[in-house]
Design brief:
Elements: H1 13-40, H2 44-54, E1 60-61, H3 62-69, H4 73-85, E2 89-94, E3 97-105, H5 107-127, H6 133-158
C-alpha cells in the first residue's frame, strides 16, 4: 500500500495532494535507484555526491559536501572512500589546513558521471512522459508557488 492509499475522501484535498506527491516521488526515486544499480552498479547517494562534485570542478571540502547533501560527515567519508578506491574521485590537500581535504572528480569519474547524468535525465523525462509539456510547465509553476510560500513561512517563523 502506498502513502496515497491512506487518504480518504473526507480528508482535505491538500492532504491528499501531499500524499500523491510523496507517492510519485517515491515511485520515481525507486526507478532511478533501480536503474543506477542495474546499469551502473552504483547507488543514489554515490550519484548525488558525484553530482555535487561535477558542479564544483575544483572540488569541495568534506564538510561542504556533507552540508550540500544534508547527510553526516561519516556518510560522506564512507562514500568518498569507496569512490577514491574505484578511481572516480580524488582527495587533495587544502593549502593552509593540514586537517582538511578537498574532494574532486577524476577524469574517469567525470566521464562516468556524465553518462549516469544523461541516463538519469532520460529516466526523469520518461517518468513525466504522460504529461504534456504545457502540463509539466503548469505543475512546475504551481509547485514553485508552494515552495515560495513555504520559504516565506519559514522566514517569518525565524524572525
Amino acid at each position: 500500500m502506498d502513502l496515497e492509499a491512506r487518504a480518504h475522501s473526507e480528508h482535505p484535498e491538500a492532504l491528499r495532494l501531499w500524499l500523491r506527491m510523496l507517492t510519485c516521488t517515491q515511485l520515481v526515486e525507486k526507478q532511478v535507484r533501480n536503474g543506477l544499480r542495474a546499469q551502473f552498479a552504483t547507488t543514489l547517494p554515490r550519484f548525488d555526491l558525484m553530482s555535487q562534485l561535477e558542479r564544483s570542478p575544483d572540488g569541495l571540502k568534506m564538510n561542504e559536501l556533507s552540508r550540500r547533501m544534508m547527510v553526516t560527515g561519516g556518510n560522506v567519508t564512507g562514500i568518498t572512500d569507496q569512490l577514491v578506491t574505484e578511481g572516480l574521485v580524488e582527495r587533495i590537500n587544502v593549502e593552509g589546513d593540514r586537517r582538511a581535504w578537498r574532494v574532486r572528480l577524476t577524469p574517469r569519474g567525470r566521464k562516468l558521471f556524465n553518462e549516469m547524468a544523461q541516463q538519469h535525465e532520460d529516466w526523469i523525462v520518461e517518468a513525466f512522459s504522460s504529461l504534456a509539456p504545457k502540463e509539466i510547465a503548469q505543475l512546475h509553476k504551481l509547485l514553485g508557488k508552494v515552495k515560495q510560500h513555504s520559504h516565506s513561512s519559514q522566514l517569518a517563523e525565524t524572525a
